[in-house]
Every structure is written in C-alpha cells, then in structure tokens.
Amino acid sequence: MTAKPLIAVIGAGGHAKVVIDVLRAQGWQVGVALVTGTDTQPVAACNGVPVDVADCALPWLISNGFHAAFVAIGDNAARAQISQELGEGGIDLPGAIDPHAVVSPSAAVAAGALIMPGAVVNAEARIGRGVIINTGACIDHDCDIGDYAHIAPASALAGSVRVGQLSLCGVGSRIIPGVQLGERVIVGAGAVVTRDLHDGVRVVGVPARRL
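The structure corresponding to this sequence follows.
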C-alpha cells in the first residue's frame, strides 16, 4: 500500500485511539492528535501519536503544514462544528473505512465519515458527512444516515431506516424497517424502535418509549 500524506487527528480520547488504527490501516501517516478547547484534558500520547494542544484547530493545522485532518470526537455537535470550520478553511476531511468493515459498492459514504471494524453497510445505503458507524454496527439496504449522526457499537438498522442529523442510536439498539428518526434524536442502549420519532426525542426500552 502506498503511504498517504500526513494527517492530523482532532481529539485524543478513546475514540481517537480507534480512529488512529483505522487511518493507519488505510495507509495514512498520523502526525499528531490535536486537543482543542472542546476536548478533555490532554495526555502525552494517544495510541503512539504525540498530543498537542491548541485553542482553535484550523490556524494550528495551517501553521504546522497539515492539509488533511480527521475529527475524532464522539460528541456529535462538537464534531459537526469543528468539521465545518476545517472544511471551510480548506482542510481535507477524508472518510475512514476499516479494512475489516463490509461496505457495499453501491453505498455512498460522505467526507469525514468513519466506518469501524466489523461494521456492515449494505446496498444503496447513504452515510452522511462526519457520521460514525461504530464497531459491529449493521446498516441495512437503503438506509439514510444524516450528517454527524452516531450509530453506536452493535446497533442494527433494518432496511430503509432514516436517521436524522446529529442523532444517536445507542449501543445495541435496534430499529425496525422503514422507521424515520428526526434530528438530534437519542435512542438509549438496547432500545428497540418500532415507530417514527420526531426531532429531539429521547427514547429507551423495549419497545422504545419516550422519556
């Protein structure tokens, strides 16, 4: 595999550690894990990558010669804000697909999206900008995952499910076929969603009920 240019990872927590593994598997040289004001207290290194601190990511990246970055922050709103700032500033935001994920050739994966090890994205699914498809998650045919949503580990979305922007499907959650989730919806861990949910709703349980 031909080595790719240097890339910076924005974030230095547990999520960033896995992102670094995925980027390395794709041939990227990860030069730094950058902690900004939105992140937690930094450590000296993150998965073998040196950590640096900046008040704002964009000027730091430009001044240090980075042209590509991956925003490895689990919080959906923070990931969206930083990604948009970097994109508007001319920083390349590539997607990252682990070699142990299965992604259909007919699926569409947008810039900055992350597909973790063991995840499955089936035919004609659409994965939006900055989306996290976490470890072992299953996205079936014709699903539409809105920008900066997070499908947590071991979650399963049946065919033609729509997940709105900035929403979270918690660990091990299940969404039955054709269900539509609005924006900023939170589905609790292990919940089973059997009907559409409006913007901003939080649900838990089997079947899922509104908090």
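The chain has a mean pLDDT of 94.
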